[in-house]
Specification:
444 residues, mainly alpha, 75% helix
Amino acid sequence: MRSVVVLNQNRRANTWLGPRRLLIVAAIFHLAVTGAVYALGRYAVLPRTFDTNGIAVSFASDGIGDRADAAGLSDLLRRGHLREWVTAPLEFHLKLYSICFALFGPWLGITIISIEPLNVLCYLAILILVFQLGREAFNSHAAIIASAIVGLWPSLLLHTTQMLKDPMFIVGMLAFILITLRLLSRTLSWPGALLAAFAGGFIALFVWLARDSMGQLLMVIAIVGAVMLVARQLHEKHIHTANVAGMALLLLISTSVTRFVPGFNKPDGPSTATKARTKISETLQPNSNPGFATHVNTLRRRFVLMYPDSTSNIDSDVQLTSIAEIVRYLPRAAVIGFFAPFPNMWFASGRQVGSSGRLLSGIETLAMYAIEGLAIVGLWRERRRFSAWLLVSTAAIGLIALGLIVINVGTLYRLRYVFLILIIIVAAKGFTDLSDWYENRRRR
């Protein structure tokens, strides 16, 4: 009788912890956080952090100008000037936010409350994709733990309340990695493989529109997936023709998107900031066919000129002018990508985020050190799974590439979210393995 009662209690708990109810809880949680952020700004509780519209002037100050641009686009929509809205020389994410302003702005104002419908959808999409990746690579237990960690990640959560392209970029990249993972780990039929490839191509276009500066990573992910698929087939001594065709088509489409779809170039404007960016772009314009080392050094110098007096720059005086210098710098780039900001920055006062922002980043970084340790455990336990190696390889390549190019820690912090999420998924598997080992040992 007692076992029946326990079984019924477990069933009720599993019903409550079902994906749909958890998503509802996550949506309510995100709404509450956004409302709290808006209230802090509206009533000037933290005036140096949030303005009266809820824009984070400390860690997402580009939202100030983006809000004005999106408001202008929403006026075009309300007046029915759809063609002007489509052809307006503004970034893709601003056009999406302008739809929210056009629909909800008249009642809620041109604030972060009006863009919350789009932001909460991005937040929920991130959690769903993290769960799907964790379940595809490992199991549902690890997937739900990874989703919980990502959903409660303080800085990521705050960024998803703002007018930023980062949440959309994260959604697109995670979706693209999920499709690559399924082409690698499953045995698909021809219709399934071709459908996955075309869906991945559409997602690649979305990623390119959201953040074209990171578009080349799409090709890298597809190449890594193709290499892993070849290794899987050699291991199994069986050729999955449909999977090979789907992966090849995915690589072809993602490469075509980055080659033939034009990236976003903001035209010259009257503002001082725009003129400064234009001058930097002209100064750093590479040759028509630059070498890899020249391209890397150009990107590094661009960040130096964009953040000349920042106290969170790392190795801003380092110039990488040859392949040999880049190879020698790779270990340092890995340290920056995986471990920055370093402890000497945790207790200093940042020029924009102040001491509290630096302390928050330090706490998160310390937690990430523990997560990276758990990821090593998870990778070791699942070292025979090609899916685990795909996640870790993609994360490592992305983090090292960012450490090689991005010299500003604040920018690095935002750009590496998607790669740290992959580390969290592998770490969740390491955590469940350690928990099972401890439980079995305790029982014995």
